[in-house]
Amino acid sequence: MTSSLPILNDSNPRLRLTVEKRRRNIFVTQLHDTRYRKEENVNYLPVVTETSSRILEAGVNTLQKTLVLKKQAELDKVNQQLALKRQEFKNRVEALALRRSELELKQQQTKEMVMKFEKFVAENEVKRRRALNNYEAALELNISKQREIEDLTDHLKQLRARKQVLKERMSKYKIYEDYLMKTIDHFPSTYLDHGAESLVTPIIRRHEILSITHRQLLQRLGRLEEEVEQGQQQLLIMKQEHSIKTMMANKELSELQSELETLKEKNRQAEVDLLMKQGLNRQKVEEVGRLIMAINNLAEQCYLSTYGPLENMNILTMMDMVKEYILDKADTERRARRLMESSAMTSRTAPTDKRERGSMKSIGTKAQIKSSSKVSRKSETMS
Predict the structure, then answer these.
(1) 196 vs 295: CA distance, rounded Å
(2) What secondary structure letter does DSSP report for 39?
(3) Fewest beta carbons within 10 Å, which of 13, 113, 141, 166?
């Protein structure tokens, strides 16, 4: 803005406005002579003595300088505002950088807290699993110990019962012990020194031998029971294998029997075919011939020109032609009966007879058209 305006110099006398100091115009009728008295708060109006062109030139130059000064002041104000804005922007950038650093620090702290929390959660999960495993192991151990306690309790009950039985047996045999003790007391003293050992020792040895033999027999019995059980298991396995083999053999036998039946049927069919070829089944051949002749006779009586010449037709075509002829006749008869009944109900005049004849003729034409359309369809399908 400053470069576009000219620079003004105050030293140029043309740019200065010189005004002569004149005396004030005061009326003569005033009481006191106050023309030369100076008064305060009075606005003086300058008296212009220069020409209008000089005043105009000086006014234009003064206006340009004033505008330049105004623009310079505005520019300074704008520069000050710009500096303030730059300082404010710089302060905001610094505050933003500080907030960003604080945010990054908070994010770092948050990440560290998250990592610590995840580590804490993982440790707690490991501890939980370990505690759960310990709990399961302790529970299984507790269950096993409980079972052992129950088994030992049952065994203790059995031992107590056995003890009670033995006590009862001892109390039962106490009388015999007392009797033997009394008997020994009545024996002489020399009897126990010489003959007691010779009588008791063989009995004891015999008892030991019998107890050993009993144990051996029990062991042998246990082995035999195991062998019998193994033999039963082997027998069961052999029975299962035998049943499976029997089922497989029965299946193969049924398959062979079915094959035999099919072969027999094939042989029977071959024999029948052979007999047919040799002309031994004349009755059937005659019946077939009669049927063919009857079909030919019906075809001649029910001939329709739409099927072509009769000599070129086969049996199936002839039967189709006879069937269509019969159906057309039945349809025509049914229509004629309906028309006759309807005409009898309305009137019995001659015009009604003419109408019936016309309807009969139209029915015949319709039947012929229908038969020709059917024959054309059949010929198309056969082609």
Answers:
(1) 130
(2) -
(3) 13
